[in-house]
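S1.2 Input.
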Amino acid sequence: MTPADKRIAELLDRWLASVELHAGYLELDDAAYAEAQDWPKHQRPTRWVVELARARLLDLKRHVAEREARGDGEFGEALELMSFLTTLLGSEHVERSIPLATRKSAETRPAAVPQPSQPPPGPAPGTTRPRDSTRTQREPQAPPPEPARATPNVPDKMTATVMADAVRFLNWGREWPQLASLIARLADRPGEQEILKILRKHRAAIEAQARRAPN
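S1.3 Output.
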């Protein structure tokens, strides 16, 4: 197996695992689907699209295995080159893609509903509560104000798009120094210098998302 064959096999495995997750998400309503992953902006894929993607992925995995068995060392390189060119030349409608989904380390569970507190037991019949002659009535005090919470740093639309591009390229085996140049060639992206600023500022978040993909 050549290095290109290995990269293609790993990429196909990641895509297939993602499609299987999307197949499981088909039964979710829109609100639950939105919470299932940290999605980039996209149009939610329909059942037909998910099933078609799964079928074509299985076909491609079979072709890769057949070519590898024949000793064809150029097939994986050709697929890798086509994937790269498709990203550069055919990404006019990125929102219509099936975004990469990964398994989370722990499933998100709804918070437990708090039970109403039980009032203290009353006195037994025929008895009275003892009075505290020393207790004085006090005016209720207002609760202290809550400390101001820092507003989370939410990336704007273009920053989120560049970050999603970077994660995708890293998952395809591209090196970090290549990212700015590759992303700048995509449609409706900012200049390379602006992309470099975004990548430097959000590098930790980008690399963390890229590492979520299963091997």
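S1.4 Remarks. Residues 105-117, 132-136 have pLDDT under 50 and may be disordered.
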